[in-house]
Each structure stands twice: as C-alpha cells, then as structure tokens.
Amino acid sequence: MSGGTEVTVVVSDCAEDDARTVLTALGETFTPDRAPSARSGGRATVWSSTFDVAHPKEHAAHAVPLEHPVTVTAQGGYGAVDRVVAELGTVFAIDAQGSAAGDQEKDVHLRLHGR
What we know:
- The protein is globular.
- The protein is 23% helix and 43% strand.
- The protein has 2 helices and 7 strands, in the order βαββββαββ.
- The chain starts with 5 loop residues before the first strand and ends with a strand.
- Strands 1, 2, 3, 4, 5, 6 and 7 form a 7-stranded antiparallel sheet that branches.
- It is α+β, with helices and mostly antiparallel strands.
- The protein has one domain.
C-alpha cells in the first residue's frame, strides 16, 4: 500500500458491535490491511484498522444504525482522509470534533451517529 493512500482509523468510546459496524462500513468501500484489532488500556478499548483508499470498491451506500454515538479518529494523507470522511458521511451522521494538520498528514476527530 502506498503511504499517501493509507488512512488509519481508530474507533473508541463505544461498544464492540458499534466499532465493528463502523469498520465494516468502511471495508465495504476501501481495502483494509487486516482485520480490525482491539487494544485495551485500563478501562477503555479502541478498535483500529488501516484502509487503502486508492481503489474504492463499487457498492450502494446506505444509512447504518449505531446503538450509541462513536468517536472516530482518521489519520493519513490529506486526500485520503477526506475520502474516508466523505464515505463515513454517506452512511452515518457526522459531528466534526476537530482536526490537526501537518506537512503531509492530518488527523480528523469525528463523532458518528446512526441514521
């Protein structure tokens, strides 16, 4: 995978089912590098996966329900992160929580709600 087309997505502040729903929705369009992984630190668990957005798959996007709001951080190249955020916006309601920009990459912090 090319570094300019990879986006690391971290899902937190939610139940495992909601995290899997978000990562599965992204996997319907973008190729994940591996199955989502979970990390626990104290009481919090986060799920993550890295997606290659260079060659999106064709599929019909549809609204996806979530039991509760989910926190998502996407990190990667500017255009790649924008593609991930746009895809998330086709299936979830999004509240932008902030972002940080660097020379070659940016981080975007979102709160997703089911539609």
